[in-house]
Design brief:
Glypican_CS, 14 helices, GPI-anchor
Length: 368
Amino acid sequence: DLQICQHRAPTCCTKKMEESYQAAVRRERTQSIQALNFELKYMIVGHITAFQEAFESLLRFAENRTSSLFETAYRPMAKEAAEPVKELFTDISLYILGAETTVESAVLRFFDSLFPLVYSRLINPGITDLSEDYTECLRLTRQDINPFGRYSKNMVTELSKSLWASRMLSQALSLGIEVINTTEHAALTKECSKALVKMQYCPHCQGLTLIRPCVGYCLNVMRGCLASVSELDAQWREYISTLEYLTNEMAASHDLEIALTGIRNSINEAILHAQLNGPQLSATVDKVCGQPKQQEGNLSSDNIVPVKEATETQTFVMAHASLNNKRREFINYMKRSRTFHASIAERLCDGDLVMRDSSTCWNGEDVV
């Protein structure tokens, strides 16, 4: 009653043993594909973590650098500006990690929050009544009167270019893990299970426990079983090319580090622009939002304070170098995995599974 290991000679196998063999080959195939995938998956997961750590390090540095701008040059508003600055960098971090947000909305939201502070602490430092309604009116007016000139839009443009490549790379790495996980759990067809039993276990039914499959026979069986996986070859090669393109983009025109450290200067230029146009802005705001209460006597406002550039810290230099090195290492490794899906059958037929150095092997029917 054997279905798979039918043979002319007497046999020690039963139908129940054939079923056990089928369960064994399914388990073994999953384990062997997982073992092949492990190194590649480990490499990608390691780089996802490394990239994220480098991103976070750069973001923290840029955030501290931006906060120090308010503490050194715009002290009257430093305390209240801390929250909008924090929100801006949180939004940037979420964007890089793939959240449903845009760089433009994050930057414009920041400038919406910044304008009431600039207006009441720097342009008109005598204002005492900054009610919620008045603050909200200033926020909404910001969009119409454009107090920060071209600097807010320039910041959106610069950040969008550089953060886009980082966001795409982050998503592409996650997709790579997804593809590898899917190939690990690709179900074997009944025909494939039978072919694998015939190749690996039918010799046992004849008492030939030490004989192993011939190389060519193993390749035929494995290629048949893994046809769906090897079909990923063209897309996988394209995926590697896309990763290469994204890492090059990040290192070239879309340099994340330059864009993040440039945030401080963009904000400074924007605030200076608003201060220089203070009288015109006040006239327009008074028409739209009304006149707020003024404190008695004229407070001196530290109108325009030149900003001392913060010296580049060791942390940033290290994070920058680390990110560049990781990019290079990673893409060189991934380029070597270009043929990963095309060569999976060859790698499964390598090693102990087949008989390489002997004159006798199993061809599915007999010892040859």
